[in-house]
Write a structure and sequence with these properties.
Blueprint lengths: L4 E5 L3 H9 L3 E5 L11 E4 L18 E3 L5 H13 L1
Parallel strand pairs: 1-2, 1-3, 3-4
Helix pairs in contact: 1-2
Length: 84
């Protein structure tokens, strides 16, 4: 089990559900939480490039583009990041 907190775009419900089952604390990445502040990683779909017109969002957390990835792939990538 992990206690890592990740921000996930709302349209990635399967990834959100899978990571929650893996023990991650999952929060929505939305207008109020655009930079995933306080999160260990941010998961984006990659499909909505700058839809909200926000191009200056900054974050210290690693960003994972989940486009073309399965929930299992995202989980593996998160574990790789944690080991670095």
């Amino acid at each position: 089990m992990t206690n890592k907190k990740v921000a996930v775009e709302q349209n990635l419900s399967t990834v959100r559900d899978y990571l929650s089952q893996e023990g991650y604390q999952v929060v929505n990445l939305d207008n109020q939480n655009q930079n995933g502040q306080g999160c260990d990683a941010i998961i984006i779909s990659g499909a909505d490039n700058n839809v909200m017109g926000v191009s200056n969002a900054t974050t210290q957390a690693p960003v994972i583009n989940a486009h073309g990835m399965t929930p299992e792939d995202v989980s593996k990538r998160l574990k790789q990041i944690q080991q670095q």
